[in-house]
Structure formats: C-alpha cells, structure tokens
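Notes from the 1:1 (GR / supervisor)

We went over the backlog. Supervisor wanted to see one worked example end to end before approving the batch request, so GR pasted a single chain during the call. The sequence is below; no edits were made to it. Supervisor asked that the structure be written out right there so they could see what the output format looks like.
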Amino acid sequence: MSLQTHRLSNGFRIVTEHMPGLASASVGIWVGAGARHELPKQNGIAHFLEHMAFKGTKRRSALQIAEAIEDVGGYINAYTSREVTAYYARVLENDVPLALDVLADILLNPVFEDSEIEVERGVILQEIGQALDTPDDVIFDWLQEQAYPEQPMGHTILGPTERVSSFDRQDLSSFISQHYGPEQMILSAAGAVDHDALVKLAETLFGHLTPTPAFDLAPAKFIGGEMRQSKGLEQAHFALGFESPGYRADDIYVAQIYASALGGGMSSRLFQEVREKRGLCYTIFAQAGAHADTGMMTVYAGTSGEQLGELADITIDEMKRAADDMSPAEVARARAQMKAGLLMGLESSSNRAERLARLVQVWDRVPPLEETVSMIDAVTTGDVKAFAETMATTSTAALALYGPIDEAPMLEKMQERRVA
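Structure output shown during the call:
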C-alpha cells in the first residue's frame, strides 16, 4: 500500500505516500498555525517565527542547519499562510532521517538569541518594504483586509511594521506554546519514503510532546468594502472579491470550475474579451481561493488609468453573462483543466506531500483520488450557471485599487451595474 497514515498517542499525525521510481523524497511538518491564529497584537508573529526557525537551535547554528541539508545536496525551506506554517525539505532517499531530524530540531529546539532576532527583524522589515513596493502583491493584502475587516482572516501574513518591530523572544515562545502542540502538527512525506521507518522516527522525535488546549478560532465573516490608493504608477491595479465556498463546502469544485471558465486560462472569458479582443491589459485572471470556513472569488487585472473604468464594466458584464450562457463546452474544458492540473501536480513529490498534508488538515483523512475526480466530473453546466448567478447578484463585494485610479469607478457604482 503506497498511501499510509498514522496517529501518535499525543495526536501527532503522519501521512506518507511511496512513489516508485523516485530516488528522492519530500518531507515536511505542516503546523496548523498561521496569520488567522494570531491576536491583533501578534499580527505577523507566525511569519516571524518561520524565519527564526532557521536561526539556530540548541544543537545547530544557523549555518549548521543549512549545511546539514545542503551537504547532502538537499533543499530546505518554509512558508506561512493564513492557516498553516510549513517547514519542509527535499533530499535523497537515504537522507530522509537526517531531514526529519533537522526539521524536528528547528521546530522543537529554537534558541531565539536576541542578536539573531534583531538580524531577522531587519530581514522581515525589508521583506515588508519589498511587498509594499510590489503593487500586484500588496493589492491582495488590501483586498483581504476589506473582505474581512478587523478579523484575523483579514490580517496580512507579514504583519505591520510596528508589530514586527516589537516582537521579542517571549512573544515567539508564547506563540509556540499555544499553537505548536503535537495535535497541530502533520508530518507529510512523499517519494522514496518508508512509512514504518518514519513512524518510528517520529515517535522518537515528537512522541514526548504534550497536547495543548484547542485554540478557539474565530469564524471568518465576509464583510466587504473598498480600498483605493492613488499613486503615480504605470498601471492601475484592480482586484475585486466575492465570498465563495471554503474547502469543506459542497460546492467548492463548482466554484473552482466557474473561476477557471471565467478567468483561469487563455481560453477563458475574461482573457478573451478583455485582453485578446480589446487589448485592455496584459494580465487578467480569476481564482477561487479557499480556507477552512470561507473562501474568496477574486478577479485581478492591471491596466492604464484611462481604461480602468472600461475594464471594470466588462468584468461585471462577463460575470453577468456567465450566468446566462455558460456553455457545456466551457464547463467541460474547465473540468479537464482542473483534473489535469491535479494529476500533473501529483508527479512532483513536493506537491504531493503538500497536498497530503492539506487534506489531512481539512478532512483528517486523504480522500481517494478517484473520489476527487468523480466530484469534479459531477459538476454540471447548470451547477456552474447557478453559481455564476450568485456571484453576479450578491450584494457584498470587496474592491482594492492602486495606481492611477482617479477615474476608477466606485464599488457602489460597480454594484449597481451588477444588479441592473
């Protein structure tokens, strides 16, 4: 059996999938602690902690952490999202125990030296500055803030500079104590992996951990609103968002197929109408992002300030038209793209390990691939048209605009056009 799962007595979960023919493996620890698990005064600390994990442990210096993996030709990294922080490595088969030992070390034995905290604080502040100087990055943070105002779900992942500037060792340690318990962790590995060997090693490295009290995660509530910032850029950046299903919702695949047909590729409606026929932009797309209990359908584009109004009008018109004349051929194409993306992604051990961890986090199991494909195939044209109608008529939306936007339409005017 290639896919196997196990749970230690303290709640620590393990999921592995052996991939025949591979000489390497991807292994990582996914921790259910991200930006939405932070208190307002903690905003940015999950990401800060991700950085500090590589800055030294009781057993290894920052350089020794890097050398341990790179001396065997491997790769190690981490990322933070709104619901998870992941620490992962890719190594050759014989080095999987080493990779897991390093990952356990940086998670369980960080020292948080004051000098290293200050160094990494500077790095993160530079990262925040870089994001603020990248319009097609910062606009999505603004959209998130407008969609979920004054809620953890609306917080930026990097955090504001004033918060990042004040975090200290105690802040980092407190966040670990609250959110890095064994039941929040998932060890996921794919490729040239031995499940039984990993379970035995995980028992040694993580089996002693004591479960922590469950964190009372505040439900996300999509509110909507508008953020506009005028700046002398070459392009006006436009991001429009609507509430859509979370991972556990019955219509999650309907939403993703709708997003693909609307703006998921070169054959999509928005790409063809806005870029190919009218030449109004270089980049335009739609996507259905999902979280545990909510999601957001997002349309993004960049264009000139003079053409922004026209682009916004066409976007609204295409959303309305999709509810009326979405064709079976478009839905079939979107289904095929979704299935192909899923199956192609499974050819990568890194993608597969991440998918396994996400599924265990959401469902506490790994649904068979055939089950997922059948749910995608079950989506009908009628389902997509009904969902499109909801997107076209919902009274709540979020809008973020950045650049030469003085002539851009207000969200209220866009909403009026949607319901007209």
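Supervisor's comment: The mean pLDDT is 95.
Batch request approved.
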